[in-house]
Amino acid sequence: MKKESVNLELLKREMEKLLEVQPKLTDNGLYFIPTGYKITIKPEKMLSDEILKQFSLCREWLSKVDKIETFNTNQGSYSYKHMVEGCFRRYVCNGAFIAAAISLGIPIQRCRLNNPSVYLKISQESVNEMIKYTNYDRNVID
């Protein structure tokens, strides 16, 4: 995928609105408390320049897949975020991927109760098409 210039201020405003609707979104994904752990949500981390750049890459990748009416339970957001990394040869966090899906109007559903990942209503066929671009020898999809 071609990398486009990123307007961080615009992305920051969009992320702020998104966090108002989904305040439990963290860089790890949807917030949950594993048994025996104490976790503090730090929403400002989702507003960092680095995560905003990741958010932009995830939006670009997701804009290439087809939306469907039912949740695709073949893979969750954590698997998809690895595909984005393969396309752009750059780390992206699960939270940035989930934020991108929400911002594009793609419905999400938590994979399991104590899991930060989500399922999306996206076509497995179009995901399979995108998989061919996850080769780390390539950094551009036309």
- List the strand order in the largest sheet: 3-5-4
What percentage of the residues does DSSP assign to strands (E)? Answer: 5-15%
Unreliable residue runs: 136-142
Specify the helix fraction band: 40-55%
How many whole angstroms does the radius of gyration measure?
15 Å
The mean pLDDT is: 87
- The number of helical runs is 5
Sheet/helix structural class: alpha+beta
Q: What is the total domain count?
A: 1
Q: In sequence order, what are the helices and strands, one letter per element? A: HEEHEHHEEH
Indicate the overall shape: globular
Number of DSSP strands?
5
Report the biggest beta sheet as strand number plus sense, adding barrel if it closes. 3 strands, antiparallel
What is the topological layout?
Blueprint: H1 8-21, E1 25-26, E2 29-30, H2 49-62, E3 67-72, H3 77-88, H4 94-103, E4 108-110, E5 118-122, H5 124-131
Antiparallel strand pairs: 1-2, 3-5, 4-5
Characterise this structure.
The protein has helices at 8-21, 49-62, 77-88, 94-103, 124-131; strands at residues 25-26, 29-30, 67-72, 108-110, 118-122. With 142 residues, it is of the alpha+beta class. It has one domain (8-131). The strands form two sheets. It has a three-stranded antiparallel sheet with strand order 3-5-4, covered by helices on one side. Strands 1-2 form a two-stranded antiparallel ribbon. α1 (8-21) packs across α2 and α2 packs across α4. The longest helix has 14 residues, at 8-21. The termini are close together.
